[in-house]
Amino acid sequence: MADHPPTSVSAKEKRTLAEFLSMMDRRRPMYTRTRSRSDSESVTGSSTASFDEEHSTGSESRRLVPKRRKGRAMAYFMCGSIWSLTILGIVAMVDLALMISRSLWGLEDDPDQIFANWGKPDTGTEGLAWYPTDFLRDVQPIHCHSHNDYWRKVPLFSALHAGCIGVEADVWLYDGNSTLYVGHNRASLTEARTFQSLYINPLVDLLERANPQTQFTSSINETSRGVFDVDPEQSLTLLVDVKTDGAKTWPEVLKQLEPLRSRGWLTYVENGTVHKGQVTVVGTGNTPFDLITANTTYRDAFFDAPLDKMWEDPDSNEPVTTPTTYNSTNSHYASVSFGAAVGRVWAGLTKEQLRTIRGHVKGAHRRGLAVRYWDLPAWPIGLRNSVWHALATDGVDMLNVDDLRSASRKSW
To answer: Quick one: signal sequence residues (predicted)?
Structure first.
């Protein structure tokens, strides 16, 4: 019998078989892995390879599943870490922005927190008479004047705790009533807030505590201490801004100073000589100058003289011989509105403005008076601090301040 050549598989049959095997692979995805096949593979070879692949790829898939899960967990971890770090970065940036904002706007912790319970029931302070004996023991006096002091959480004591050596009280007198009420305007007046309750009585109480009469203080020099323990020689200036008729109101102010006067705690002038006391009283507003100077031999209150009328050429070395109406025997402060006398400040004090200030300082100091400007720039904080620094540098004696915290930090 003649030999016949082996039956060959046609190309069409190969494609049919390949499609069948491909379909089987898709039906068993967990146990097979797709592998490209060439048309030159034999039917038997393809079938055998497919069977071997079936079993080998199944075991490999089972080994790869945990690896894929581990990789996915690692990706989740990395993603979570990145988001956590991003959130922390945002929080840190917000916190930094708040710190900068608080610094720019002057928002710091309130030093008056020690007065948080002042006036509350069962604290012993209900009658406006809570005067701690030691809250001033380490306070450093600074040359600042507590403008509108009666606005403070605790008038007088807030200023003293900040170190201010000057406070201001606006007083009002009504016909048929000898009481001097304290407030910025008529709407702010109350029966309890008076010149005596907010200033005279507290000062008497505070100075009595600072000057106890004991066997250890027999010398008079040991019983003439001021309100500041670290500087007992420092006098406190009490500026009384008379809001009602001066001719009627000022005599009442002098009467109500008697508790301080009788104890020898007022700065006074006798026969042309100034004797410094623990409290120096200065009249401003509607205070009549002629009533202050009426007694030529003795007075224990002084005038707030007009600073703008004292300007002298700061660049001149020529002696000034012009007679002076205001001097240290009748006045203590020399004050004026900063905006009116010096002008508005935009980016900083100009050379002409600095010259004006130096002329005011020269004229006031020649008369023996302390220079004070009111109506100072309050904002922006950086501009205000720059003006404060310039005033202190050029010899202004008292900074008129509303922001006690910034003044006490002396960051200007």
So the answer is: none
